[in-house]
């Protein structure tokens, strides 16, 4: 079965551990207990999120408040991944991101920008800010655009919101450039999560609610991947033209039950 | 030569007659006189613009103020073209357009929208307005998005601005839908301008500064097309991979000189 020979788990957070919302969100039944059981089992564990509306510190504090055993050192997130790329390539970003994400870039030289980093800026997606990011990009000899994800939209308690991917497409079109996506489903992003766990892809399982970004992305790295029927899961995902998970599970608790039974 | 057997001219406005700007803009030398000479020659004439930041009335008044002999009845513009499509197909639009364009849709039923019309909304491209247009679209069984142009960006006196095409791409991506472009370079748009002149495409010449939207679009309708070296023209346009104008001219005045000499 799909649960054989596993040494490490990658868990998506929103939609797997909890359902997010302006009120802070609510835990998904059984998920906090499931995380504790993974840790007690000796399996390696990483939380692998595309969250870009807060620093990891703030994000982890919220999850601890919801009852999860999680620490900053266990989280793979797009902003620190972007920082590695920026340092590696000597890039100085102009940031179009959420105010609460800015501290993640504290160590990065942002003077005289030679690239644009776009995240889910939410209220910061103003006409003026979009034009400014565009002008920085179009002014470069060879525009470099890093995008912290490529989501289309998401749901909040007050309705659907356009996600970073939509604004990324606007800048891509205006500047005739292709963005480099830093979070899931980028191969490099999953690979750093695996490296941080010290587990090769064939011994790891990704568990997520997003058929494309979690399941498809992990499988392209040689991992197995499960889709949970919580969070943004929709029954139509089971007929996705390109991606087929190694298995469906009703929720994280069920996945952990099956995996631990096989150990 | 390219100027033979011509009975009608289609003129782009911004970049051919005048250069626009927050100050109202300035006429391009010789263009007002060129328009008068066309009219005196007996050639048919239409102004064919993608302008969507003002009603035709307001737009024409501005051009008259700059010394041009032009009337509302001579202008083909995206908003009235969109109104024909909306009526024809029984579509009730949610409008994401410039405040000054709204009166063009006065006759159109906008209750209980079953499509979205996007124009160059400028300051109306707020986070809230984009989310609202997105929610209307994604809520439809089969989303219908009409876009009043597909420009990438344009220049104003205070800098470059993202044009309607960038926001169109954002909504296309978020809703997994293809917009129907109503202005240039849409075939139907040029065809209505030709029908309004009563001239077949093979007897008409389009004169514009935009290599793709003016020249490419007109040629695909069977017209000849000239690119002027004014407005948004850039020397690199002369190496465009897909589009080659029938001729280049330094400006409208030069084109009209050559055309009238051949009559």
TrEMBL record, chains A, B:
<protein>
    <recommendedName>
        <fullName>Phospholysine phosphohistidine inorganic pyrophosphate phosphatase</fullName>
        <ecNumber>3.6.1.1</ecNumber>
    </recommendedName>
</protein>
<keyword id="KW-0460">Magnesium</keyword>
<keyword id="KW-0539">Nucleus</keyword>
<dbReference type="GO" id="GO:0005829">
    <property type="term" value="C:cytosol"/>
</dbReference>
<dbReference type="Pfam" id="PF13242">
    <property type="entry name" value="Hydrolase_like"/>
</dbReference>
<keyword id="KW-0963">Cytoplasm</keyword>
<dbReference type="GO" id="GO:0046872">
    <property type="term" value="F:metal ion binding"/>
</dbReference>
<keyword id="KW-0378">Hydrolase</keyword>
<dbReference type="GO" id="GO:0016791">
    <property type="term" value="F:phosphatase activity"/>
</dbReference>
<dbReference type="Pfam" id="PF13344">
    <property type="entry name" value="Hydrolase_6"/>
</dbReference>
<dbReference type="InterPro" id="IPR006355">
    <property type="entry name" value="LHPP/HDHD2"/>
</dbReference>
<dbReference type="GO" id="GO:0005634">
    <property type="term" value="C:nucleus"/>
</dbReference>
<dbReference type="InterPro" id="IPR006357">
    <property type="entry name" value="HAD-SF_hydro_IIA"/>
</dbReference>
<dbReference type="GO" id="GO:0004427">
    <property type="term" value="F:inorganic diphosphate phosphatase activity"/>
</dbReference>
<comment type="similarity">
    <text>Belongs to the HAD-like hydrolase superfamily.</text>
</comment>
<dbReference type="InterPro" id="IPR036412">
    <property type="entry name" value="HAD-like_sf"/>
</dbReference>
<comment type="function">
    <text>Phosphatase that hydrolyzes imidodiphosphate, 3-phosphohistidine and 6-phospholysine. Has broad substrate specificity and can also hydrolyze inorganic diphosphate, but with lower efficiency.</text>
</comment>
<dbReference type="InterPro" id="IPR023214">
    <property type="entry name" value="HAD_sf"/>
</dbReference>
<keyword id="KW-0479">Metal-binding</keyword>
